[in-house]
């Protein structure tokens, strides 16, 4: 009869594979459009490295069957994502991604395997690979700090999808429980960190889900910009008039008054702030979150473009 650790491990396998497979929809769109759009290749490459190392760890571990199966499946999925990305990425991005993939997934991974098998022996092998895997996973779970900062600054959960946060929290909970049952420190430490950060994300979601600030509509912003441009045009025309005496002075004074009453430039929308912050704070964990961010933004941009086109036809 299967023990509790095996049952928990099976549940963890199912959840983890669902998280890995969540990108199938994204790459189906990439294949249909034959374009990677604004997606970056580094998240898929770094996640391929992480899952490959955990697979190697599972092979070294006598009780690592479930670790091997889930990460082996994850590595195969990530490898397919990397191949598809390289097929449809622009030339410049393709070259950079190929160099990164060669460095990490061939050079670094190959070096780790070679050192482990040739220079290390016994339990030292498991310790060496386990520490590397734990460090990579901690980095993966630490990356949501950038997402949480965006939520706090913008008071909006637009860029922190609930289902993704929930499943990653659930994933950390399950594997954390598994690590306690099998007494595996290298699996347990990263999962505890993931559990804490996942809990913090869900708390933030509960705090801000109903507090998203109402942004100015694009129509209102466009009207304000048009008014500004119209007033500036009036000032330029008034300055260009060649009148004598008091009329000329009056015209200049009127222009100055117009200029001083020009509306201030529209406030930068929070989506732009979020975009800058996300770009500056990318990490390995972006493999899931960044795709969701870009899916949201691309869909939003398409809606705006469709609205502008329909508006121009009226």
UniProtKB/TrEMBL annotation:
GO cellular component terms, alphabetically, are:
endomembrane system; plasma membrane
Q: Which residues cross the membrane?
A: 6-24, 44-60, 66-88, 100-120, 126-147, 159-181, 187-208
Q: How does it sit in the membrane?
A: Multi-pass membrane protein
Q: Which InterPro entries is this protein grouped with?
A: SWEET, SWEET_rpt
- Please state where this protein is localized: Cell membrane; Endomembrane system
Annotated keywords:
Membrane, Repeat, Sugar transport, Transmembrane, Transmembrane helix, Transport
| Biological processes annotated in GO | protein homooligomerization
- Summarize the protein's role: Mediates both low-affinity uptake and efflux of sugar across the membrane.
| UniProt record similarity statement | Belongs to the SWEET sugar transporter family.
Q: What is this protein called?
A: Bidirectional sugar transporter SWEET
What organism is this sequence from? Punica granatum
């Amino acid at each position: 009869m299967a023990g509790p650790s095996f049952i928990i491990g099976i549940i963890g396998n199912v959840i983890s594979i669902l998280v890995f497979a969540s990108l199938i929809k994204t790459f189906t769109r990439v294949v249909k459009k034959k374009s990677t759009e604004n997606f970056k290749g580094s998240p898929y490459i770094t996640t391929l490295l992480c899952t490959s190392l955990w697979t190697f760890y599972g092979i070294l571990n006598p009780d690592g069957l479930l670790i091997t199966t889930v990460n082996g499946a994850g590595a195969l999925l990530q490898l397919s994502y990397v191949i598809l990305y390289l097929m449809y990425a622009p030339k410049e991005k393709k070259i950079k991604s190929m160099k990164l993939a060669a460095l990490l997934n061939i050079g670094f991974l190959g070096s780790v395997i070679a050192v482990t098998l040739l220079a290390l022996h016994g339990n030292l092998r498991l310790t060496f690979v386990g520490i590397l895997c734990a460090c990579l996973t901690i980095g993966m779970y630490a990356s949501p700090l950038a997402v949480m900062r965006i939520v706090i600054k913008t008071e909006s959960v637009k860029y922190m999808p609930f289902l993704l946060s929930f499943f990653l929290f659930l994933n950390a909970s399950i594997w954390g429980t598994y690590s306690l049952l099998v007494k595996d420190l290298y699996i347990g430490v990263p999962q505890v960190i993931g559990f804490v950060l996942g809990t913090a994300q869900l708390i933030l979601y509960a705090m801000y889900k109903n507090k998203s600030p109402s942004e100015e509509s694009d129509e209102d912003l466009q009207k304000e910009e048009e008014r500004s441009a119209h007033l500036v045009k009036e000032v330029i025309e008034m300055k260009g008039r060649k009148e004598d005496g008091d009329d000329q002075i009056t015209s200049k004074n009127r222009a100055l008054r117009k200029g001083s009453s020009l509306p201030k430039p529209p406030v930068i929308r929070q989506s732009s702030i979020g975009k800058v912050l996300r770009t500056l704070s990318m990490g390995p964990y972006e493999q899931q979150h960044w795709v969701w961010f870009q899916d949201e933004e691309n869909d939003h941009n398409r809606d705006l473009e469709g609205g502008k086109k329909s508006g121009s036809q009226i």
